[in-house]
Amino acid sequence: LLQAKTKSSVLREMTKLAESSGMLWDAKEMEQKLKDREELASTATKEGIAILHPQRPQPNIIAGDFLAVGKMHSGIPFGGDHGVLTDVFFLLCCQTHENYLRRLSRLARIVKTPEFLPMLRELDDAESIVDLLKKTNETLDVE
Known about the structure:
Blueprint lengths: L6 H15 L5 H14 L8 E4 L13 E11 L9 E8 L3 H16 L3 H7 L3 H17 L1
Parallel strand pairs: 1-3
Antiparallel strand pairs: 2-3
Helix pairs in contact: 1-2, 3-5
């Protein structure tokens, strides 16, 4: 669970989370890249999620493609003009633009699965969240 109360603190916590996984080598650099991207346009959506990502792939500071997930019990104003608070944050980092587009498309399909977000919001531990992501992803292959 994120303890953040502001957009800047969300970006800081999400990059620290990725760094603690060993997948991100330079949290400060990534945090700046995410801030730069958010200044262009918010990645927050009307579903109350944000899909954080740098504007361009950062292969020199990541160990490989990864997705980090952070959530909070109550949302914060994160941007966008839809007036919805954001409580779920995905940090998507990829080695190449092609991988980013592929993984973003897949994540968008997962998030649009009707039961996914309500179930995700009920979970508090990383293992359960990873299981939900995997199971929802597998259902997309069956359809």
